[in-house]
Amino acid sequence: SVRGGGHGISGQAVCDRGMMIDLSEMRGVYVDTKAGTASVEGGTLLGDLDRESQAYGMVCPAGVVSHTGVAGLTLGGGIGILMRKYGLTIDNLLSVEIVTPDGQIRHASAEENPDLFWGVRGGGGNFGVVSMFKYRLHEFGPNILTSTSFYAPNQAKDMFNRFFEVSQNAPDDFHVWAGMTSRETGDPMTIMGFTYAGSMDKADRLTRPLRGLGKPISEFTAPVNYVKQQSRIDGHNAHGRNYYIKGRHVNDYDPAMIDNILERWHRDPRRLNTMRLVTFGGAMADVANDATAWPHRDAKWDLELGASWVDSDDSEEFVEWGRDYWESILPYTADTFYTNEIMDEKQDEITANYKANHKRLLEVKNAYDPKNLFRLNANIRPEA
Q: How confident is the model at residue 369 (pLDDT cuts 50, 70, 90)?
């Protein structure tokens, strides 16, 4: 197995009775201000990249939890709060240095080993160990406008209806999300939020449709330092806890989906750590599905549902609850998912998730890893 940041919920960064290649001490970030690029070692965390690039007034669009490893994030696509403005993380990847299963150090870019470069942009860790990533940076910061509104449980349905109504029509400078979470006490919270990365003189007019829902219990809207914003939800993904998380794309809004989620949530809200809906579109959707290995450019929303608990003795109960909850939601979702939200999907589901790109990915896998040495991932099984 290969461990970058060790953030993956599925636990595939480590292996039993095998060898783990641990990159966690390789955390160098080297910013070239003239070229507007950052060269990043394979064990780097998202917070490292954010801090170093923001020190020069630049940014690479990436994830939303600062202790995420950039390697896993990037190889799985890389969604985050700037994806509608600047694209996915892979859309800003210029090249990689990768050690392939034959022990060779290779470089891959649009000009060198282009088939391999296509594959690593969404094909996960199937082709080797990436020791260095080179990203395009964008001038940005130091602040981003952030808004979070909390609503009472009886406002939840109206809030989600509003979210689905306005989120897809928001300008590309917006990252719009909605969700639910529960505290350890069982107190439920319903949340709608956005970040705005555009011109501040247009902010009031453009954000008004997203802030016009009833009377929230509390509301926070203010410019926030970008690096701080990128660690605001770290606590919901803390180390040392147990997690069960499932994700699927949503392409059509059916109010019955929210009815189902709310009904089950009210049965036992303490078990629902997080339900999150994130809006896709914008710059990430301007790229063709076959331009990179990531084939979900036309998805509209990403739905993630997760349970979290402390005592490992409770794992069987929580996982069973999570699976049952998730099965009730599947009829309202697409059959595709964000690779980095993989949990216990079966191989046929993983294969189907690559959609039409699987054929080409299989060719790349056969060329570089025909014995499937790197298989603890969203695996592309070679023909051999």
A: very high
Per-residue pLDDT reduced to its tens digit, 329-343: 999 999 999 999 999
Do the beta carbons of residue 120 and residue 127 sit within 8 Å?
yes
Q: What is the DSSP letter of 355?
A: G
pLDDT for residue 82 is more than 70: yes
Q: How far, in Å, CA of 199 to CA of 58, rounded?
A: 16
Query: What domains can you pick out in the chain, each with its CATH number?
Result: 2-139 (3.30.465.10), 143-341 (3.40.462.20)
Give the Cα separation of 175 and 281 in Å (integer).
10
d(CA 105, CA 98): 6
Looking at residue 248, its amino acid is R
170 vs 206: CA distance, rounded Å: 8
The Cα–Cα gap between 96 and 75 comes to: 11
Cα separation, 338 vs 180, in Å, equals 20
The two structure tokens encoding residue 321: 């609850």
Residue-wise DSSP of 87-122? --GGGGEEEEEEE-TTS-EEEEESSSSHHHHHHHTT
* Residue 319, amino acid: V
The secondary structure of residue 69, as a DSSP letter, is B
Q: Are 177 and 164 in contact (CB under 8 A)?
A: no
